[in-house]
Amino acid sequence: MSFEAIEYLISILDRVEQLANDIPPVENKASRFGNPAFRTLYDKIGEEAEKWHQEIPNFPKEAIAEVSVYFKECWGNRTRIDYGSGMELNFLCWLYCLERLVVLTEDDHKALVVRVFWRYWLEPAGSHGVWGLDDYHFLPFLFGSAQLIGHKYIRPKSIHDAELVEEYSKDYMYLACIRFINSIKTASLRWHSPMLDDISGVKTWDKVNSGMVKMYQAEVLGKLPVIQHFLFGSILPYQGIPAPAPNNEEEDAHWGHAHADAPIGASPVDRAALGWGDCCGIPVPSVFAAAADEAEKKRSGSGLLSGQGIRPVPFD
What we know:
Elements: H1 3-22, H2 37-54, H3 64-73, E1 82-83, H4 85-100, H5 109-121, E2 127-128, H6 139-147, H7 162-168, H8 173-184, H9 189-192, H10 194-199, H11 205-221, H12 224-227, H13 268-274, H14 287-300
Parallel strand pairs: 1-2
């Protein structure tokens, strides 16, 4: 087991927490959404990320630029000041990259979950996304249910026992999640977390965990809003279906002009930052052209339903 690497990863999370403590929220009464001070925290983490990676034991220097991207993106979105399961996925990918680079090994998995990931889950990160089982995360429930498999006394329905949750939340991630939810929300789980309440009716933790694995694959990894922003690189390459090639170059909407290409060896973020060229943005129809087209349809009578019994549908 890579004790030295695990301890250093925890120290990195301690440094992030210290940065968060050093950057207090700013006055933001005009908006109920994320506090603008998060952007300062995001920038500070970005400034320190590569230096922190240089100090990770046995970490290959040539991989710093690529791997640090996942770490920087796991704290939230700088523009929207929000947090969702895509950012949580970035943290998981950061740890996975460390294993692919043999900084960590399979023997470290338990320590990564109960020490490193648990430490990460406790960090604040703006407002939160829609794919989590609570308002914050998904994976703590998936890992937490695995941690409870085979427990002699704690059952899925035990989350409704306030005393048990309080007593064992220090040792079990799933119960720590429930305790946190209860601490910030009123009423019962049935009202504010109906999915967790439904899951508590499952008989065993084995079934809860297997169901959550399937749910994570479908509702997070299988969702375009999450995966469309995922950063592929040399360590985590894209291995999906390639885009179909046009039969004739002239049939390609992009034929006849060049696009900005990232240099060989550029990091995923550098490639993502280029985006589409001005020539190939998403086409947005002109409101003037649309109005003229609509007027022409009315004049000619095309595109309109007519006949006996046809009446406008009221939208009240």
